[in-house]
Amino acid sequence: MTSIENPDATSDTPNKRNQVRRVLINALHARSGGGVTYLKNMLPMIATDPDFEVHLCAHEDQRDLLPSDIEGVYYHFFTFERGFWKVLIREQIEVPRLARRIKADVTFSPANYGPIFAPNTVVMLRNAVSVGLVEKRPLKLAYWILLFAATLLSLLTCKRAIAVSDYASRVGAGVLWKWTHSKISIVPHGVGERFRPDPKVLRDETTLLAVSDIYVQKNFKNLLIAFAGLVGDNPELRLKIAGRPLDMDYYQQLQKLILELGLEQKVSFLGSVDIEQLIELYQSCCVFVFPSTVETFGNPLIEAMACGTPIACSKTAAMPEVLGQAGLYFDPEKPDDIRDKLRNLISNPDLRDAYGADAEGRSHEFSWFKTMEKTKRVLGP
Questions:
Q1: Do 2-190+367-379 and 204-363 share a fold?
Q2: Tens of pLDDT along 202-242?
Q3: Residues near 316 by Cβ (< 8 Å), separated by ≥ 6?
Q4: Fold exhibited by the domain 204-363
Q5: What stretches of 214-262 show up as alpha helix (H) in DSSP?
Q6: How far apart are CA 37 and CA 66, in angstroms?
Q7: pTM for the complete prediction?
Q8: What's the CATH code, domain 2-190+367-379?
C-alpha cells in the first residue's frame, strides 16, 4: 500500500504539464551513508525549482531517516513488510504502478538499480560494487554479486544514468562500459556550506580522525595496525572513528584486533554523531585519515577537505579524483606505508598547514548547487 501525503498530487492540467517535468524519486534504498546525505541536500533544492514537480516514494520506516516534511515535495510511503528480497520485488511492482498513476515523466532512483518498467528511468552509480573483490565471506560476497547483476540490468534498461565519479561509472558498468558509457553523466556530490574552517578552533595534535560507517572495505584493520606502529613514539596519540557499526561481524573483528594490539585506551568508536559534532571533529583533529580500499566518491573526504583538515588518504578508487594533490597518499594495502605517511604529517606542522589549505581550496570545486544543476540536465527533456 502507499501513503499519499498530498492527495492532489495526481491531478493533471494541460498547462502545467507543458511547463513542469514531473519527477518520481525512488528512495527505497536510501538507508545510510551517501544515499541519505544526497537526498537531505538535494530534495530541498529540487523542490523549489519551478521546472520540476517532485514526488518521493520510500518505505514507512524511512520517515526518520529522510527529510519528510519539505514543502513542495509530494510524499508516497509504502507500508509493505521490509526485507531484502521483498524490497527488490515490490520495487519492481509498486514504483512503476505509482509512476503511471501520477503520470511521472521521469523515475529517478539515486541508487545503482531501480524499477525496470517505470517510465524514463534514471539510476545513479554510487555503490562500490567492486567491494566484491575484497569481500571473503560467502554470504556477503553473494550480496555484492547480486548488486552487480542488478546494476548491469538497470544500466542496460535505463534511459540515462548518473555516476558520482569516473571510477563509479567504470566499475558500475563493468564489461558493459563500452556500450553504456554514452548514457552516463558524471555528477559528483557536493558538500554543505556548514563544513568550513573555524580559526577559533585549535587543532589537537594528539588526535587522528576517521569517519565512516563500519564495513570491510573501509579498511580499518590496516589502519589499526598502522596506528599501533605510531603510538610507541607518540604515547599521547589517539584515534577516533565516527560511524555506525553496520557490519557487526567486521566490527567484532576490529574489537578483537584492538585487544591484541593493546590499543584499548587509544582507540574510540564514537558511533553515529550529529552534524555539529562531526564538523567540530573535522575542525579540531590533527589529521583526517581515509584508509578505504573501495569508494565511488567519499562524502567524509570532501567534508574534511571543506573544513581545511590535513588529510592522509588511500591512493585508489575515486579518491584521487576527489582529493587531487591536496593530501598525502598511501597504499591502503600496506600498513607500514599508512604508518609512515601519518608519521610524516604528525611530525610536520608546516606540511599539515599546507595540505589543509590546499584541501579547503579544492573543496570549492564541489557544491550541492553544482550537483543540482548537472542533475537537472540529466532529468530534463
A1: yes
A2: 999 999 999 999 988 899 999 999 999 999 899 999 999 99
A3: 293, 294, 331, 332
A4: Rossmann fold (3.40.50)
A5: 220-228, 248-261
A6: 9
A7: 0.89
A8: 3.40.50.2000
